[in-house]
Amino acid sequence: MPDDDVFLALANPVRRRLLQLLAEGPRTAGDLADQFDLSRPAVAEHLQVLRRAALVHDEPRGRQRHYHLTPEPLAQVGDWLHPFERFWRERLRSLADAAEEEDR
């Protein structure tokens, strides 16, 4: 099961957006900050939370930090969610069957 820090990190929409951006490839902290209407220190705090949850890692290059997505914790979340996905798929199938019956 994923660490609670992972779920806490994913609970915030800014951090989810940061992960989406990093899924496209590594980016500098400045480039990431430019994608938000937040101060650079605020974005840096979000990146720190993602780092603590091991969802990203950073690589210093000169005066810049390049952030990279760390996919393993997300794979653990996906594995944990898989049984729930089956549950909802069955529920939606039942709902679709009921709607089809009503249309007849």
Concise synopsis of the structure shown:
The protein has helices at 4-10, 13-23, 29-33, 40-52, 72-103; strands at 27-28, 56-61, 64-69. The chain is α+β, with helices and mostly antiparallel strands and 104 residues long.
Could you characterize what this model shows?
It comes from Micromonospora citrea. One of its GO terms (molecular function) is DNA-binding transcription factor activity. Keywords: DNA-binding, Transcription, Transcription regulation. By secondary structure, this protein is α+β, with helices and mostly antiparallel strands. The chain is built from 5 helices and 3 strands, in the order ααβααββα. The chain has a 3-stranded antiparallel sheet. α1 runs antiparallel to α4. The chain is elongated and about 65 Å long. The protein starts with a helix and ends with a helix.
Task: State the main characteristics.
65% helix; 104 residues; alpha+beta; three-stranded antiparallel β-sheet; 5 helices; 3 strands; Arc Repressor Mutant, subunit A
Shape: elongated
Per CATH, the class reads Mainly Alpha
Span of the ends, CA to CA: 44 Å
Task: Please tell me the total number of domains.
Answer: 1
Please give the largest β-sheet: 3 strands, antiparallel
CATH 4th-level superfamily? Winged helix-like DNA-binding domain superfamily/Winged helix DNA-binding domain
CATH architecture: Orthogonal Bundle
Average pLDDT level: 89
Tally the helices. Answer: 5
Number of E strands: 3
Unreliable spans are: none
Radius of gyration: 19 Å
Structural class of the secondary elements? alpha+beta
What is the third-level CATH name, the topology?
A: Arc Repressor Mutant, subunit A
User: Helical amount among residues, as a percent range?
Assistant: 55-70%
Percent range for β-strand residues: 5-15%
The strand line-up of the biggest sheet is: 1-3-2
Query: Helices and strands, in N-to-C order?
Result: HHEHHEEH
InterPro entries: ArsR-like_HTH (IPR011991), HTH_ArsR_DNA-bd_dom (IPR001845), HTH_MetalResp_TranReg (IPR051081), WH-like_DNA-bd_sf (IPR036388), WH_DNA-bd_sf (IPR036390)
Pfam family, one: HTH_20
Organism: Micromonospora citrea
Protein name: Transcriptional regulator, ArsR family
